[in-house]
Write a structure and sequence with these properties.
The complex is a heterodimer of chains A (365) and B (404). With 365 residues, chain A is α+β, with helices and mostly antiparallel strands. Chain A is built from 15 helices and 8 strands. In chain A, a hairpin with a 2-residue loop joins strand 2 and strand 3. In chain A, helix 2 packs antiparallel against helix 3 (71-86), helix 4 packs antiparallel against helix 14 (346-356) and helix 11 runs parallel beside helix 14. Chain B is an all-alpha fold and 404 residues long. Helices cover 68% and strands 1% of the residues of chain B. Chain B contains 13 helices and 2 strands. In chain B, strands 1-2 form a two-stranded antiparallel ribbon. In chain B, a hairpin with a 2-residue loop joins strand 1 and strand 2 (112-114). In chain B, helix 1 runs parallel beside helix 12. Classes of the chains: A alpha+beta (365), B mainly alpha (404). At the A-B interface, helix 4, helix 5, helix 7 and helix 14 of A face helix 5, helix 8, helix 12 and helix 13 of B.
Chain lengths: 365, 404
């Protein structure tokens, strides 16, 4: 009687909830999603190729621009990779400060995720609340290195400088008040029926699919796979801290939300331990003025807020890498999007994109 | 017909209509400012404060901006329908105001009686239901004529939503009609006065059904799917700009005011004071004489607080002092202010206060809730609100049967 046909719709690259320049080609059957095809590359800058023509210290600012929401994790991973290649031992004080910075960065990144995720689902107040706290963290970073987004905060072999006077007290103050602030977000969301309806059972990612697709980070852990690089392959003295790795059960959007909320609490716990046991001493190892690592290859991973951030360096000779490759967690996690969205409603796409927390700078590099 | 009667039957209604149509955009402009301010304070930010003192001229600036903005029409749209749609949306919204009574007692202006409502017809509720259903045409036409997929999706959602929620909306007010025995707005309020209790108490279920359905009907948070900016960018009015967009906007806010007014009239006694028959509270009859000093005192105290930076202590002190002063004025005829006790003014005051409360609820929802998903919205409407509102009708019927 009636003829129905599928509708193709283009979502992005200019769209408020694709979190940057992600483009999705959607095939819809009414409101139901038949297929999702992500189209990427709108933010490609060729960082990997650029790195082949930069000396090692000059590459670090480039890593800031990969995952610009969590630049410190990128710095940490990159410096760690070069240090591994050179066989450098980073002084304990620098390692601890790096941990404090990385965990603050994790909180800041998760706050941005939470605010935008909630905004996508229509709860706009949470966004302003999370930005209030994120602002405090950015102020801390600014006090430490002078930058608020692209920090270039570390150096190969340690840090450029020790933390400024009174900085640790400011961090302590922040992690003191943060739990009460986190409760404010949870009051608005965690037990909200509409929020539960929008997130529970939405975008389920089965553990076998997650592992098969190479998904990592909170997205993987929400599916029930207990894997955290910080614990599996400890770096920067993460083995000296006590923390729990939250794991979800159902692998839906709600679990990804709960896992990230818990991660923020665990980050506070790690920061508190690091500050309590902060060793004295230098913050930078003896590093030659011109960094010329021995020939060889190295792969180093860190747990960035988005997942397993890997750095693969092939070095032949001189001051520049022969080949540089970044394993971008956002890029890999994005591959799970069609699996999670098929057969759901168009409104769920927005929820799922929000919950896998991609950063397009990281996807496209 | 003599001149007197001519003015009474022709000029005064025309003036009333003109007054409503002219004052309404201003009210809505400032409602928008209030919304931004309240939302701003809920969201730990300051809200507009550049144009005028604390942003008081912001609505004027916005209106001027919308008026002089380029009025674009998409190239492949249906030009006629595209232009027609906002008009079709805004007319029913304005027409609903014709039967909203703001008070009962007439004003006396130059010897003429001016009622605080445009007309009082005996099928006012049916008229409201009928006319508010027409607004959907504007949404569908606008979405379709834009020739944009996002707009079309938004329009389809919107039509499904508005039609679904008409049903519980209709059922929810039947209970009130049964209790009052009339569909005239004035009669319904008078029946509440006679009963001595606002209908929200015997009709608590009806009130909830009505208010939820009405929020959905006006497409506001948490039911703002048609314009879900995160998914559909703006829904049916994606392609609209300038004055055409402003008309959609005007219609949305007019509908909010109309819905709040209907809730006030049906369930909260319209222009009646709280406990309309309790003699001990008779001083509330002149509520505005109490309210104005209270707000003024509180505001002055707040200003002093801002200057001195001592928290909000002076604000409360000023409010209490103002309330005490207002109580004296309202209670007795001190200061020879008895002339201020005009029943119609008092009625309008109570009515506006209640309407403002429901408008505040709208803003409060917007600050608190995430958005429903399309299927959840439908489930809520069909599986919960409709059965509940039918249950309410049956329950009310039984109650009337038992109590006689």
């Amino acid at each position: 009687m009636f003829r129905t046909e599928e509708m193709d719709i283009n979502m992005g690259p200019q769209h408020p909830s694709t979190h940057g320049v992600l483009r999705l080609k959607l095939t819809l059957e009414g409101e139901e999603v038949v297929d999702v095809r992500p189209v990427i590359g709108y933010l490609h800058r060729g960082v990997e190729k650029l790195s082949e023509h930069r000396t090692y210290p000059m590459i670090e600012p480039l890593t800031d621009r990969l995952d610009y929401v969590a630049a410190i994790s990128e710095n940490l991973g990159y410096c760690g990779a070069v240090e591994k290649l050179m066989g450098l031992h980073v002084p304990p004080r620098a390692q601890y400060i790096r941990v404090v910075l990385a965990e603050l960065q994790r909180i800041a990144s998760h706050l941005l995720w939470l605010g935008t995720h909630a905004l996508d689902l229509g709860a706009m107040t949470v966004f302003f609340y999370t930005f209030r706290e994120r602002e405090m963290i950015l102020d801390l970073f600014e006090a430490f290195c002078g930058a608020r987004l692209t920090y270039n905060s570390m150096r190969i072999g340690g840090l450029y400088e020790d933390v400024p006077q009174g900085w640790t007290d400011r961090v302590r103050h922040f992690i003191g008040i943060f739990p009460s602030r986190e409760k404010e977000y949870e009051d608005l969301l965690t037990v909200n029926r509409i929020w539960l309806g929008r997130t529970r059972g939405v975008g389920v990612l089965k553990p076998e699919d997650a592992v098969g697709l190479g998904v990592s980070g909170p997205t993987l852990r929400a599916s029930g796979v207990d894997y955290d690089v910080r614990r599996a392959q400890p770096y920067s003295s993460y083995d000296q801290f006590e923390f729990d790795v939250p794991v979800g059960k159902n692998g839906d959007t709600y679990d990804r939300y709960i896992v990230r909320m818990e991660e923020m609490r665990q980050s506070c716990r790690i920061i508190r331990q690091a500050l309590d046991r902060l060793p004295e001493g230098d913050v930078r190892a003896k590093v030659p003025k011109y960094i010329k690592p021995p020939a060889g290859e190295v792969y180093h991973v860190v747990e960035s807020p988005r997942g397993e951030q890997g750095f693969y360096i092939v070095h032949k000779s001189g001051e520049m890498p022969y080949r540089m490759r970044f394993r971008a967690p956002s890029f890999v996690n994005l591959q799970a999007l069609p699996v999670m969205c098929r057969g759901r409603l168009i409104a769920d796409i927005v929820a799922v994109i929000g919950s896998i927390d991609i950063v397009l700078g990281d996807v496209d590099r | 017909m003599d001149r007197q009667a001519l003015i009474q039957t022709l000029v005064i209604p025309a003036a009333q209509i003109l007054a409503v149509v002219l004052v309404l955009p201003l009210v809505i402009a400032y409602l928008q400012l209030v919304e931004r301010k309240v939302l701003g304070f809920m969201q730990v930010r300051l809200a507009p404060r550049r144009v005028g003192w604390h942003g008081l001229l912001q609505p004027i600036a916005d209106a001027v901006k919308l008026l002089i903005k380029e009025d674009t029409v998409p190239e492949k749209s249906d030009r006629f329908l595209f232009t027609l749609a906002p008009v079709v949306t805004v007319i029913p919204a304005l027409a609903s105001l014709a039967v909203i009574p703001f008070a009962a007692e007439p004003f006396h202006v130059f010897g003429y009686e001016v009622n605080p409502f445009i007309t009082d017809i005996n099928v006012a509720l049916l008229y409201l239901l009928a006319i508010s259903s027409l607004g959907i045409y504007g949404v569908i036409l606008g979405g379709w004529a834009s020739n944009s997929k996002y707009s079309l999706l938004g329009a389809l959602r919107s039509s499904a939503q508005m039609i679904s929620y008409e049903v519980p909306l209709g059922f929810a007010i039947i209970g009130v009609m049964m209790l009052a025995g009339s569909a005239s707005m004035v009669e319904i309020v008078n029946a509440q006065k006679a009963a001595g209790v606002w209908y929200v108490l015997p009709q608590i279920l009806g009130f909830f059904c009505y208010f939820i359905a009405a929020v959905a009907e006006t497409n506001r948070v948490p039911f703002d799917l048609p314009e879900a900016e995160a998914e559909l960018v703006a829904g049916f009015h994606t392609e609209y700009s300038g004055m055409k967009f402003a008309l959609f906007f005007l219609a949305e806010y007019t509908n909010m005011i109309v819905v709040s007014s209907i809730v006030t009239i049906l369930f909260f006694g319209g222009w009646l004071r709280p406990f309309p028959n309790a003699a001990a509270l008779a001083f509330l009859e002149n509520g505005w004489l109490l309210f104005v000093p209270l707000v003024a005192g509180g505001f002055l105290g707040w200003l002093a607080d801002q200057k001195l930076g001592g928290g909000l202590r002076l604000m409360f002190a000023g409010g209490i002092a103002g309330a005490a002063l207002g109580f004296l004025i309202a209670r007795s005829d001190v200061l020879g202010l008895a002339g201020l006790q005009v029943p119609a003014v008092s009625g309008v005051f109570w009515f506006s206060l209640k309407v403002s409360f429901f408008l505040f609820m709208y803003i409060w929802f917007r600050g608190t809730y995430p958005r429903y998903r399309y299927d959840q919205l439908m489930a809520l409407g069909w599986k919960w609100l409709i059965p509940l509102s039918i249950l309410n009708v049956i329950g009310t019927g039984l109650m009337i049967l038992i109590t006689g």
